[in-house]
Design brief:
Strand order of the largest sheet: 1-2-3-6-5-4-7-8
Strand content: 25-35%
Transmembrane segments: 148-169
Structural class: alpha+beta
Keywords: Membrane, Signal, Transmembrane, Transmembrane helix
Number of domains: 2
Signal peptide: 1-26
Number of strands: 8
Largest sheet: 8 strands, antiparallel
Length: 190
């Protein structure tokens, strides 16, 4: 047997070993307790972020609905008793406290694809603060880095490189002979 056949047999046997070995069967009595429901966050909403020396704010826009989470910049504690007023392109929105220490408000019309200037006024006890950001919904394409052409190009390039390495290894002796002939030809030209 030549070396390629041996390596092919080794590769197939190791693939078979790892494939069969990974098929585990949990029989009766094999229990880890109550099955927990998985938490999936499949809905990706456009987000905006604001920060100042006092607060950090993360907000999402879903059509006309705006949800904001605000916390203390230094301690990361939730800010739950503040008065928040949001200005979105000269439209003032009084935010009301909602579940999970978030604040919600409604726009008069959906955002669409236009860029917005967002200003948040915070009044918490005796502290006032203003946070400002620009929201651009075109920058929040969730699948921007997962384009099919990028991955297919990467896959084709990898397969081409593997094929070239395989052919080069298989035809090593012919390539070395051709390389020596080329070097001799260049030396003879001088």
């Amino acid at each position: 047997m030549n070396i390629i056949t041996k390596n092919l047999i080794r590769l197939c046997s190791s693939l078979l070993f790892f494939t069969v070995g990974s098929l585990a069967y949990a029989g009766p009595g094999h229990d880890h307790g109550e099955e927990k429901t998985a938490v999936h966050s499949t809905i990706k909403k456009p987000k905006f972020y604001m920060e100042s020396e006092l607060y950090e704010v993360v907000g999402t826009i879903d059509g006309k609905n705006i949800v904001i989470f605000i916390d203390d910049y230094l301690t990361n504690r939730k800010v739950s008793e503040a008065e928040l007023t949001l200005n979105v392109d000269d439209q003032a929105i009084k935010l009301v406290k909602a579940v999970n220490d978030t604040y919600q408000g409604n726009l008069s019309s959906p955002v669409g694809k236009k860029s917005l200037s967002i200003t948040l006024s915070v009044k918490d006890k005796d502290v006032d603060d203003i946070l400002i950001t620009t929201y651009d919904p075109t920058d929040h394409d969730v699948l921007k880095i997962f384009r099919w052409w990028y991955w297919s190009l990467w896959l084709i390039s990898s397969m081409t490189l593997i094929a070239m390495l395989f052919i080069g290894f298989r035809e090593k002796q012919r390539l070395i002979t051709a390389y020596k002939k080329l070097i001799n030809f260049i030396k003879e030209r001088k």
